[in-house]
Design goal:
single chain; 111 residues; mainly alpha; 6 helices
Length: 111
């Protein structure tokens, strides 16, 4: 998995455990794809300070994942849902196929 995607997933799982400042900077960097300067200027901090904050926060997120493993489990659940959805497409009974697809959609919304 690409490093950027991994940290987006970790932010999705553990972002609420970060400080507002940490979460905002990480979202600007990973989700909005802003440069260090574009993040630091409005905050009144240097590019180096932004980079340092990102590296520290990455370590925090990796530590959460190492201990809790939610992102890895979530990824596995999504892959399983995709396989079920693909299998449901081959069910000849339209009513059953639609019921299964509806339940898959309900599960996906919960994730």
């Amino acid at each position: 998995m690409a490093k950027e995607l991994r940290f987006v997933m970790l932010l999705d799982c553990y972002g609420d455990l970060l400080t507002e400042h940490q979460r905002n900077v990480m979202e600007l960097y990973y989700c909005e794809d802003l440069s260090l300067a574009e993040i630091g200027n409005p905050l009144g901090i240097t590019r180096q300070a932004v980079l340092s904050l990102i590296k520290r926060t990455e370590n925090i997120l990796l530590n959460y994942e190492e201990k809790l493993g939610f992102a890895e489990r979530l990824s596995g659940i999504r892959a399983c849902i995709d396989r079920i959805r693909s299998g449901a497409d081959s069910i000849p009974d339209k009513k059953l196929r639609d019921n299964i697809t509806d339940e898959i959609d309900n599960i996906s919304k919960l994730l």
